[in-house]
Write a structure and sequence with these properties.
Number of strands of chain A: 10
Strand order of the largest sheet of chain B: 3-4-9-6-8-7
Helix content of chain B: 40-55%
Strand order of the largest sheet of chain A: 6-7-8-3-9-10
Distance between the termini of chain B: 29 Å
CATH superfamily of one domain in chain A: P-loop containing nucleotide triphosphate hydrolases
Distance between the termini of chain A: 33 Å
Largest interface: A-B, 33 and 27 residues
Order of helices and strands of chain B: HHEEHEEEEHEEEHEEHEHHHH
Radius of gyration of chain B: 30 Å
Structural class of chain B: alpha+beta
Strand content of chain B: 15-25%
Number of domains of chain B: 2
Largest sheet of chain A: 6 strands, mixed
Oligomer: heterodimer
CATH architecture of one domain in chain A: 3-Layer(aba) Sandwich
Number of helices of chain A: 7
CATH class of one domain in chain A: Alpha Beta
Shape of chain A: globular
Number of strands of chain B: 12
Largest sheet of chain B: 6 strands, mixed, barrel
Number of helices of chain B: 10
Bound molecules: adenosine-5'-triphosphate, magnesium ion
Helix content of chain A: 25-40%
Strand content of chain A: 25-35%
Radius of gyration of chain A: 18 Å
Structural class of chain A: alpha/beta
Chain lengths: 240, 386
Amino acid sequence: MKQPIIETSSVTKTYRSAGNSVTAVDSVSFAIYPGEFVALVGPSGSGKTTMLAMLAALLEPSEGEICIDGHLISKLSESERVKFRRQNIGFTFQSNNLLPYLTVLENVELMLRLNGYYGINARQRAINSLVRLGLEDRLHNLPNQLSGGQRQRVAIARSMIHNPSVILADEPTANLDTERAYQVTQLFADLVHENNRAGIMVTHDLRMCKYVDRIIQIEDGKIVADLKTRQEIDALISCA
Amino acid sequence: MKLAFFLAFQEVWRNRGRFLLFSLVIALITTLVLFIAALSEGLALANKEYLEKINAQLLVFQKNVDLSAAVSRLSLSKINDIRRVEGVAAVGPIGFSNGVMVFSDGREDLNVSLIGIEAGKPGAPPVIVGKSFVIDRGLQVVIDKNVADRTGVQIGERIVIKTIQGTKEEFYQLEVIGITDKRQYLYQPSIFLPYRTWEQIRPQMTSGLQLVETISNVIAIQVNPDADPTIVADRIRAQVNDVDVANIVTAYKAIPGYQVQQDTLNTQSGFTLLIGVLVIGGFFQIQMLQKVPQIGVLKAIGVSNFIVAAAVVSQIILVTTFGVAIGSLISLGLALGIPSSVPIIFNGSSVLIAVGTLLLIGPLGGLVSVRLAVTVEPLIALGLSS
Ligand SMILES: Nc1ncnc2c1ncn2[C@@H]1O[C@H](COP(=O)(O)OP(=O)(O)OP(=O)(O)O)[C@@H](O)[C@H]1O
Ligand SMILES: [Mg+2]
């Protein structure tokens, strides 16, 4: 059996504010292996985003451990976390992914520059990935000159360009029409599979699960279902 | 660091319209500050130029007149008393009054300071063209360069000075024998006359009044090279009755209105700088508030706080420097087009200080937005906050 890329054990997150506390994630344990593209689904407020934030070392679990790529997240210092994020994680958000004052190409290159890669080779690599995503004639446009789907594709290119082992996406298709949403999800799936990464996509839309290998369903912070076979997945999609 | 500059520059470049506009605001503030500084410098100089350049270290005034040359009256017998004080090398009486240079050939009349001095004594200006007077009562004058520039009067020319004697206008013909450098006094270009001639020509309450004892306004003193002016001043105060002694700087600062004027202009320039801080601070703060989501994303994908802060700071420095540079160019252009009669001087140290301060206020005003940028949490990229 291969080593998992992501492994969580009894991860709990409790938000405490004056008077009340909310347990957003409740002792969640799972392991995700190379080449696995996972959908994290669940009703609003079930703790999906919170889980993602902890995986990206943006939020500290109240309890439990997260191990990614051999890094025990809780052991990392603040600056090591920043470095961890820029080297090991590829992130796509729901919106506002791109810097409005950088061109498509520069936005993608940014991730390389951040990791210390400058120059012709870096640029060529960014161009190749954008060509691959069908954006070859948009390289020098600013984000506000693109459609929503194009913008998300640029964000995907950015999240993969530095070869991270983990791809995280929080409702990347929420602002897209169905057709574009399918395209974007399929793109994610392909890029995860090709490079043996671990991919987690949070989504509301069960139809998008057509392209995933596994569905983790959570409710009130707890895993209620972990579907790993094609039949189980297709069954869930068809009841939606 | 390279990345920080890249981000800062790209943002400015891709929004150059907005940043240019804002640079122009900084440029206008710069122009305003520079003009106030130049005006302050120019007005101060026009007031004190003669005293500042005088070939003396001390000035003696009458006691209890607050070092006002216009009020001070010293009998010339004091000169002998002062000369005897140890450490005094040379003394010279100086008389100040005003007159009008009139022309019969259509040239415009010019108000001038009439300054009476004794040739070769402290208070006498160096002659750069022509010669100085040798006797103390000839109808000869030395004009300063301002008079020469503004009237075109040359060596050897006869000029006419009008003063009021009693209630009548009197006209005196005098020959220009020398020109000295710029030596304005109380905002007027100066004409230097032999002391006795000055006494006759200066405006008087009653015409033809013959004074029993000659008087001057102040007495200029050169001290021995090895003597300390402060000590010599103390000795004069102790040994000569009814006099007050001041060094040159104290003397021109005591010109009525001088300090008030400088303080007013300094306050004005201080307020303008304060406005600059607020405007720059406000602009970048508003920008930053709009950019909070962006910065959240940047941090979430692994950009360090240091790079975010460096980008903000370098952007502020870039924009401020650009604005100040444009403002300085505007000021320079305007300064070249301003007539010489306007007392504006752009080479004083105060102008350099103003530019330096302006370059500092940018980062100062921007500190708030740097603080904001640093405190933005990467979690907001996900719509969460801790
Ligand atoms: N800063 C916070 N303080 C307190 N409670 C919080 C905070 N952030 C989130 N929560 C709570 O934690 C729970 C999980 O929130 P989370 O955003 O992770 O849910 P989600 O599954 O992503 O929901 P959605 O599908 O609507 O995005 C919610 O009940 C939410 O109200
Ligand atoms: Mg969410």
